[in-house]
């Protein structure tokens, strides 16, 4: 079946990004892996390549497009090479939609040119210690000063991807107490300058996977946030978060599918080269059956991921459909990558092989952006259960 989701422009971008990865990432990726993060100057290179500006209006230095298909190509190409671009994914997939949706013209003029160039890297700080998926339970507060010029931010966040290198962070905080009939009320969003006094980055978290993506704890002690950096209206933050969750979950779904596809490629190459008992591992019937089953699952995940991508670009991807795509694609990737690692034997357990890193990187897909259990709850609710 011919794939129809991408056109000539996307394939030209694929060639560009593949060449960029081969030249700028693959030769130094082991260094990034050992350091636990991509270097800050790498993001300037992505800015120069135009990756950050694809969906940014032309007046702010972007390409003025409105599509997630170039992001999708990037997911496929990074997975294919067994690398990732550090914390840059949250910069585009998580932060940009809030800027485009909520920022005033004045804010866009301040934020977007530096966003496009990589001069200001953005992150999203939602999760808190002890709250996890319960966003409405957050304790971080932002209180308006008596003179009305700024908010005073206090609290802590954890598991913040891109948090070490971030120059601005969209922080979710309580500006009002929850209502008795609506505990989601009272949350607001702020574009916080990480150079602000009282803002601090705690330890860089030691993760199982995604080793080159910096993930941090953040703390706010009487941080003054100018009222000019409030995004959208006060107390409507939970509503805004809900509007952007489908795109975030699509991104996780598509990324998981791309990882599964890459895993089959890695395994196929390995079993054709590896010899056991005088024969290639690929020549054994079990190998053929395992890889055939994996390929069938990847084909199905690709169809689901592509369908969700088309719906997202059309503005029609519902929360339940996004949850379904995330649940299916991440569970497929879990099964496929595990089988492909098994086909590598002992070498599959070595970090020098991309399948080992992929195995560790993939595990979080069923946790962040809402756990698989949360996805099932959303889907069940949409079924009237």
From TrEMBL:
Keywords: Branched-chain amino acid catabolism, FAD, Flavoprotein, Oxidoreductase. GO terms for biological process: branched-chain amino acid catabolic process. PROSITE patterns: ACYL_COA_DH_2 (PS00073). Residues 123-223 form the Acyl-CoA oxidase/dehydrogenase middle domain. GO terms for molecular function: acyl-CoA dehydrogenase activity; flavin adenine dinucleotide binding. Pfam families: Acyl-CoA_dh_1, Acyl-CoA_dh_M, Acyl-CoA_dh_N. Residues 7-119 form the Acyl-CoA dehydrogenase/oxidase N-terminal domain. SUPFAM superfamilies: Acyl-CoA dehydrogenase C-terminal domain-like, Acyl-CoA dehydrogenase NM domain-like. The keyword Oxidoreductase applies. Its cofactor is FAD. Residues 235-383 form the Acyl-CoA dehydrogenase/oxidase C-terminal domain. PANTHER family: ACYL-COA DEHYDROGENASE, ISOVALERYL-COA DEHYDROGENASE, MITOCHONDRIAL-RELATED. This is Acyl-CoA dehydrogenase. The lineage of its organism: Bacteria, Bacillati, Actinomycetota, Actinomycetes, Kitasatosporales.
């Amino acid at each position: 079946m011919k794939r129809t989701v991408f056109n000539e422009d996307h394939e030209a971008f694929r060639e560009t990004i593949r060449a960029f990865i081969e030249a700028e990432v693959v030769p130094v990726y082991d260094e990034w892996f050992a350091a636990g993060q991509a270097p800050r100057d790498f993001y300037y290179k992505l800015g120069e390549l135009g990756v950050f500006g694809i969906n940014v209006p032309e007046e702010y230095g972007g390409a003025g497009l409105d599509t997630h298909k170039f992001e999708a190509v990037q997911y496929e190409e990074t997975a294919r090479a067994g690398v990732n671009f550090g914390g840059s994914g949250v910069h585009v997939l998580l932060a940009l939609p809030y800027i485009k949706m909520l920022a005033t013209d004045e804010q866009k003029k301040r934020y977007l040119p530096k966003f496009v160039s990589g001069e200001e890297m953005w992150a999203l700080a939602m999760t808190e210690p002890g709250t996890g998926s319960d966003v409405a339970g957050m304790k971080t507060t932002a209180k308006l000063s008596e003179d009305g010029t700024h908010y005073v931010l206090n609290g802590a966040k954890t598991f913040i991807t891109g948090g070490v290198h971030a120059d601005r962070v969209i922080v979710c905080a309580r500006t009002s107490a929850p209502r008795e009939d609506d505990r989601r009320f009272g949350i607001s969003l702020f574009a916080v300058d990480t150079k602000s006094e009282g803002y601090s980055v705690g330890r860089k978290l030691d993760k199982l996977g995604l080793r080159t993506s910096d993930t941090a704890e953040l703390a706010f002690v009487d941080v003054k946030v100018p009222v000019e950096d409030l995004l959208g209206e006060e107390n409507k933050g939970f509503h805004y978060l809900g509007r952007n969750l489908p795109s975030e979950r699509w991104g996780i779904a598509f990324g998981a599918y791309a990882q599964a596809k890459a895993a089959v490629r890695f395994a196929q190459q390995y079993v054709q080269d590896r010899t056991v008992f005088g024969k290639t591992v690929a020549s054994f019937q079990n190998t053929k059956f395992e890889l055939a089953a994996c390929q069938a699952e990847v084909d199905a995940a690709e169809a689901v991921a592509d369908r969700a991508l088309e719906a997202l670009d059309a503005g029609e991807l519902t929360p339940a459909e996004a949850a379904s795509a995330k649940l299916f694609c991440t569970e497929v990737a879990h099964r496929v990558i595990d089988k492909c690692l098994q086909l590598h034997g002992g070498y599959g357990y070595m970090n020098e092989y991309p399948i080992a890193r992929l195995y560790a990187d993939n595990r979080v897909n069923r946790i962040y952006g809402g756990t698989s259990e949360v996805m099932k709850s959303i889907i069940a609710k949409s079924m009237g259960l």
